[in-house]
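Researcher: For the annotation table, I need structure tokens for glutaryl-CoA dehydrogenase (ETF). Please keep the output clean. Sequence:
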Amino acid sequence: MLVPTHSPTPDEVAADPVGIDHMLSADERAVRDRVRAFVDTELRPNIAEWYENAHLPRELLPAFGELGVLGMMLSGNGLPGRSAVEYGLAAAELEAGDSGLRTVVSVQGSLAMTAIHSFGSEEQKAQYLPGMAAGRVVGCFGLTEPNAGSDPGSMTTFARRDGDDWVLSGAKRWIGLASIADIAIIWAQTDDGIRGFIVPTNAPGFTATPITAKLSMRASIQCDIELDEVRLPADAMLPEARGLRGPFTCLNSARYGIVWGAMGAARDALETARRYALERVAFERPIAAAQLTQAKLADMTLDVATGSLLALQLGRLKDQGLLLPHQISIGKLNNVRTAIRVAQSARTILGGNGITAEYSPMRHVQNLESVRTYEGTDEVHALVIGAALTGMPAFR
């Protein structure tokens, strides 16, 4: 039986309070540490400015490609082919930097690339996926509409046949990366049900307009898309995507990443508050010595530890091909709720300084309100879980 050789320091306890490191392989830790180092050197020094100025540097996409996090779980065609747990660890590190920056990776990889990888022709995969994995080709994913969010089956964007071509008309909203994307995966109604299309963003009739009046996700891009008689050749359709199974497959991949990412944001908020409490002196001692502060830190640590264990369990299931949709909903609903609670509590430890851009918790709170909404609201995930428990869907 192994016996601990020393009592851990406070920093060591804070870094891994329940010993998750021992549950990871050397390869998994290496992926995590590589992404963490990238976040520390390339993202943290700049994120407050990017957030304040609502700026996403386009050059981050090739940098993410070089890091190997675009389409990270996908294989073939020069793709990274990493495990679900490795991707989850990377997502947590990226969101510890900023939710919006993790969202960039998710839109490119879990949504746009997964659509092509899962439902595209071999020609489409060969044409687009290598460039997308490298960040040279940027994709977006057009499902949500102004009046069709949680109910994508009610979308009104329509693709009609005109000879051998398809002609798309309609509108999409809250589409990440659309204004800098080279291609858009657009889901549309047809006479044969919902189908997916690869749409070059320079096609006549395609317009992407950034949504600028945002109080959240300011270091990423979300857009309105207008499709005005956009003409496409027949081979623009994703041949294997029929009905909502296509977009839902991609959404579940993105939701899985959120389970991990939210815990990255929560962990960063907690550590920011802990370090501040150790340095901030009030009533002649660090506020970390106060009982109420320690109670807050303890509660936040419990939340981050249990949420991280849940993420790891779901990752192991996914790597075994056993992860079920209701389990993804459990992870997304629990961990985003938890992360918001942790970041809010962390902000209170920072006092008035906590509302400044110098510290991350309030930025995480604001971002996580968006994470809470996209890829399925709390209500949607509660109903997914409820349907799994009762066998009676309650969406209508």
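Researcher: And a one-line annotation?
Model: The CA atoms of residues 18 and 305 lie 7 Å apart.
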